[in-house]
Every structure is written in structure tokens, then in C-alpha cells.
Amino acid sequence: MFHVYKNYPNKIQALRDINIHIKKGEFVFFIGPTGAGKSTFLKLIYRGIVPTKGQVIVDGINIARLKPGYIPYLRRNIGIVFQDFKLLYDRTVYENISFGLKAIGATNFEIRQQVKKVLNLVGLEHKKKVKPHLLAGGEQQKLCIARAIANEPLILLTDEPTGNLD
């Protein structure tokens, strides 16, 4: 990010002159009070919003200038754990994870393998046929983490990733 500003219509300036370069393989944590701009920062990286001013460069591409049709291709390399989960409550745990893998063109075999792998990793293999509304808050959070890492993304963004974990 180079000289990034983000102002919202209600005159709130969420970010002011942010400059940061994150290298491949780095782990970066942003800590601050509610309203400090942490979620806004993440939304800029996955092109959920665009900056008011400045450049957001992801993998060499200024994503603020990215045409809407290319945004899904950008997001194929980004795993996101949302603060508000964004689960598909009418689908099972398995289907929530497989949905994104299908969207990127994974084969049925690859989907089965990856879903099994990430469910084992987060300890939800026994809940694969359960719908998310029947899971405890911590289990829903684990499902979100599994979904975010299923496609082995280059970038992993997490917004309050441990907020509901026991």
C-alpha cells in the first residue's frame, strides 16, 4: 500500500496515508481498538472496497484499478476469514468448504481430498453433514478458517479470527 486513504461517505476517515510493504511469507498482525481501520485495511486487500486515494498493490497489480470482471481471479489466491462468518446456512459444513473449490474449477476428487484435509485440521471432520446454524460459535469460526485455507491461498486475511474460539 502506498499513501492509501479511505474516507467513507459519512465523512469518517478510516485510513490516512498508510504505507506498508508485506513480503511473501510474512505474518502481519494489526491490533487496535474498534473503529481503528483494521477491517477497512483488509477489505482494501481483497478489493471489497477501493481506496479514496493511493495504491493497493497485490502480487504486482494495482487492484484499485482492477476491472470488476477480474476481481474473482484476484480472490482465488486470497483466503478470507470474515468477522461475521458469511457462511451459507442452508448448506452443510462440507458444502460450505467445497463451494469455493468448485468455483475455482477443482475436480470432485480434489474437492473431497481438500475438504477432508481441512476438516481434520480444524477438528470438524465429524460435523461435515451438519448445517452451520447447528454449530457452536467456535465451531462456526473453525469452519470459516477451514473454508479460507481449503484452496491453499497465497494470502490469508483474518478479521477477528479467534473471536469465537474456546
Automatic annotation (TrEMBL):
Keyword Transport among UniProt keywords: yes
Example of a GO MF term: ATP hydrolysis activity
Keyword Transport among UniProt keywords: yes
InterPro entries recorded: ABC_SmlMolc_Importer (IPR050093), ABC_transporter-like_ATP-bd (IPR003439), ABC_transporter-like_CS (IPR017871), P-loop_NTPase (IPR027417)
SUPFAM superfamilies referenced in this protein's UniProt entry, alphabetically: P-loop containing nucleoside triphosphate hydrolases (SSF52540)
Any Pfam family the entry gives: ABC_tran
Domain ABC transporter intervals: 2-166
Keyword annotations: Transport
Protein's recorded name: ABC transporter domain-containing protein
